[in-house]
C-alpha cells in the first residue's frame, strides 16, 4: 500500500505537475526519471518526519483526516461539475484550492495537531474534523467565482456543459 501511494505521489508531482504544467510537456525522459527519484526521496523524508510527529495518534483518526481533506477538494468539484451548468474552470480551481487550504489549516489548528503534536494547551479550532467547514467553503467559493466569471473561457465552459447534457 505504501509503495503504491509513493508511486502515485511521485508520478503526480513529476509527470502531471512538473512535466505537463511547469514545463508544458517539454521534458526529456532522463530528466523526468531523475526528478522522480529526487521526489521519492523528498516525499519519503516528509512521510518519515510526519510519522514521527504523529506516533501517538490513532491510525483510523489520521485516515479520517486524510479523507476529510480529500473531500474538501473533490466532493464539491464532482457534485458541481455533474449537476451545475454554471461551474467554470476558474471557479473549480479556486474552490478546490480554498477547500484544500482550509481543511489543512483547520487540521493544524485543531486538537489533533495543535494540542497532541505541538503540545499546546487548547486548540485554536475546537473541532476534530474540518470537513463541515472546508467543504462548505469550497462549495461557496466555486459558486461565487463561477458566478462572477464573465470571461470567454467561462462562456465556453458553460456551453460545454450544455452540450454534454443528456435529455
Automatic annotation (TrEMBL):
It is found in: Cell membrane. One of its GO terms (biological process) is plasma membrane acetate transport. Coiled coil: none annotated. The keyword Cell membrane applies. It comes from marine metagenome. This is Cation acetate symporter. It is a multi-pass membrane protein. Belongs to the sodium:solute symporter (SSF) (TC 2.A.21) family. One of its GO terms (cellular component) is plasma membrane.
Amino acid at each position: 500500500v505504501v509503495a503504491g501511494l509513493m508511486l502515485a505521489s511521485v508520478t503526480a508531482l513529476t509527470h502531471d505537475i512538473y512535466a505537463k504544467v511547469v514545463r508544458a510537456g517539454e521534458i526529456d525522459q532522463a530528466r523526468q526519471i531523475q526528478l522522480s527519484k529526487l521526489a521519492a526521496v523528498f516525499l519519503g523524508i516528509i512521510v518519515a518526519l510526519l510519522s514521527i510527529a504523529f506516533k501517538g495518534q490513532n491510525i483510523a483518526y489520521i485516515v479520517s483526516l486524510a479523507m476529510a481533506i480529500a473531500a474538501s477538494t473533490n466532493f464539491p468539484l464532482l457534485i458541481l461539475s455533474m449537476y451545475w451548468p454554471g461551474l467554470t474552470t476558474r471557479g473549480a480551481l479556486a474552490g478546490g484550492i480554498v477547500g484544500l487550504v482550509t481543511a489543512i489549516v483547520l487540521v493544524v489548528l485543531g486538537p489533533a495537531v495543535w494540542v497532541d503534536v505541538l503540545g499546546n494547551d487548547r486548540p485554536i479550532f475546537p473541532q476534530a474534523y474540518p470537513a463541515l467547514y472546508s467543504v462548505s467553503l469550497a462549495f461557496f467559493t466555486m459558486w461565487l467565482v463561477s458566478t462572477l466569471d464573465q470571461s470567454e473561457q467561462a462562456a465556453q465552459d458553460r456551453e460545454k456543459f450544455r452540450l454534454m447534457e443528456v435529455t
